[in-house]
Specification:
The protein is an alpha/beta fold. The protein is built from 4 helices and 4 strands; from the N terminus they run βααβαβαβ. The protein is globular and about 40 Å long.
């Protein structure tokens, strides 16, 4: 089976000012846009939702946004930083079958 779609969940910035300032925000500048472009070029539909209030993450708010997307056995889920924790919790709760889960964060 080959994955047909991917959803990438970004990490959480330390504060609202950093997240909303075009000079300091990172979610639209680092590896996520590049990865999305590469996946799309390879025929994998890719979504990169902006999670609500990521500087103060709340599971239920993330869940509401995330569940706007269809997740099934053809889905790759990618989480960065707090996006990893969200995906692991969501998968544990829902028991949804997916194609692959990739998680990562910067080195501490």
């Amino acid at each position: 089976m080959v994955a047909k779609k991917c959803i990438i969940i970004h990490g959480c910035p330390s504060d609202v000012e950093k997240a909303m300032n075009p000079e300091t925000r990172t979610y639209d500048k680092h590896w996520i846009p590049w990865t999305k472009k590469q996946l799309l070029a390879n025929g994998i539909e890719t979504e990169t939702p902006l999670m609500p209030s990521p500087w103060y993450p709340e599971y239920e708010k993330f869940k509401k946004e995330f569940e706007k997307y269809i997740v099934d056995a053809n889905t790759i889920l990618v989480g960065h930083s707090c996006g990893c924790a969200f995906l692991v919790r969501w998968l544990g709760e829902t028991k949804e079958k997916i194609f692959k889960l990739k998680t990562g964060s910067k080195k501490l």
